[in-house]
Write a structure and sequence with these properties.
The chain has helices at residues 33-37, 44-65, 73-76, 89-106, 115-121, 124-127, 166-176, 183-191, 215-227, 233-262, 277-290, 306-320; strands spanning 2-7, 12-19, 23-31, 79-85, 110-114, 134-139, 144-151, 154-160, 266-270, 293-295. It is 45% helix and 19% strand. The protein binds 5'-O-[(R)-(carboxyoxy)(hydroxy)phosphoryl]adenosine (KG4) and zinc ion (ZN). Residues 10, 140-142, 167, 170-171, 182-185, 188, 271-273, 275-276, 303-304 line the site of 5'-O-[(R)-(carboxyoxy)(hydroxy)phosphoryl]adenosine.
Length: 341
């Protein structure tokens, strides 16, 4: 079964053709990062306009790479999937309109996908097997959530951030440090040559809750640089390494605590921050120590792209079929995870 998927929830315009949920025939991502870099965050109006400018180019390229054109489209594509939320509403609507137009013109079923579901199932593209029960840790620019999945498509939200998403904390700290946007990749890189024990930033473990809070670490970095202005690359690298370590310690502590409490033996990472080197090393090492299998998407599938949406759509249609109500197909900026059955 070939699914054409469209992802436009934030600042990446992406389309992909994926066969049977795992065989990626093409995935094209047009990033708007340069457009938003000077603002150190995504500007919604600019994002929507850029999606409109880019979507046809991206779509044509991904169809061409999959050897599909508008003549053989009918035979080659079985369904159209798209991100229906959460995200920036103007950006989501661009993907929804393209998906609905193709669905109408070629009489193909639509599969609306929650963006978080893309990240939750993204490791399937890398590991090819994901059997519940498992804990999903979604760590991105917009989310930090621990979700317990005992059955595919049935979600129990165990913990989420009370303030900044973890990727947002990386982006804001990078801005404070005078680094580039997005902040995660550059902090990850600079942390490699810094000393993670140089500065003790707080670990907000929030006893008695499985929620996260990252604004305290962020403020601690701000207070530190006000008190000790950065005078050398070494200090900058040490701040990056110490901040990175505080974040990763917090993510690991909470996730493994939840795994122990619910006796879950599989942890699945997803979202842009799962590209972080220390996140990857630490989860793998702790997984070995606690005898818990850790699944991490390959780098290409950590950040936003349409292949992860196609993958989630394939799994979803196997469970819920291909018929969705008008309401389910309407983009919603604050869409929550909704159980499939
Ligand atoms: O999943 P994603 O592409 O978009 C959302 O759904 O939000 O994640 C983007 C976020 C950004 O905040 C970016 O700074 C962060 O992922 N990120 C990283 C790394 N690569 C991307 N954070 C830490 N380390 C990285 N290597
Ligand atoms: Zn995302």
């Amino acid at each position: 079964m070939n699914i054409l998927a469209i992802e436009t929830s934030c600042d990446e315009t992406s389309t992909a053709v994926v066969s049977n949920g795992i065989n990626v025939k093409s995935v094209v991502v047009s990033s708007q990062v340069n457009l938003h870099a000077k603002f150190f965050g995504v500007v919604p109006e600019l994002a929507s306009r850029a999606h409109i400018d880019n979507i046809n180019i991206v779509l044509e390229q991904s169809l061409e790479e999959a050897n599909i054109n508008f003549n053989n489209f009918n035979d080659q594509i079985d369904a159209i999937a798209y991100t229906v939320g959460p995200g920036l509403i103007g950006a989501l609507l661009v993907g929804e309109m393209v998906a609905k137009s193709l669905s109408y013109a070629y009489k193909k079923p639509l599969i609306p996908i929650n963006h978080l579901e893309g990240h939750i199932y993204s490791t399937v593209l890398t590991n090819h097997l994901l059997t519940p029960p498992f804990l999903s840790l979604v760590i991105s620019g917009g989310h930090t959530s621990i979700i317990l999945i005992r059955k595919l498509g049935i979600y129990e939200l165990i913990g989420e951030t009370r303030d900044d998403a973890v990727g947002e904390a990386f982006d804001k700290v990078a801005k404070m440090l005078g680094l580039t946007y997005p902040g995660g990749p550059i902090i990850d890189l600079m942390a490699k040559t810094g000393n993670p024990a140089a500065i003790h930033f707080p670990r907000p473990y929030l006893k008695g809750s499985f929620d996260f809070s990252f604004s305290g670490i962020k403020t601690a970095v701000l207070n530190y640089i006000k008190k000790y202005p950065i005078k050398s690359d070494k200090t900058l690298n040490d701040i990056c390494a110490s901040f990175n370590q505080a974040i990763v310690d917090t993510l690991c502590f909470k996730t493994f605590q939840v795994a122990e409490k619910f006796n879950i033996k599989q942890i699945v990472l997803g979202g842009g921050v799962s590209a972080n080197s220390l996140v990857r090393q630490s989860f793998i090492a702790l997984g070995k120590k606690h005898n818990i299998k850790v699944f991490i998407p390959s780098f290409d599938y950590c950040t936003d792209n349409a292949a992860i949406i196609a993958c989630a759509a394939y799994i979803k249609q196997q469970i819920s079929g291909m018929k969705y109500t008008l309401d389910q197909c309407q983009s919603k900026a604050n869409l929550k995870l909704i159980n499939w059955i």
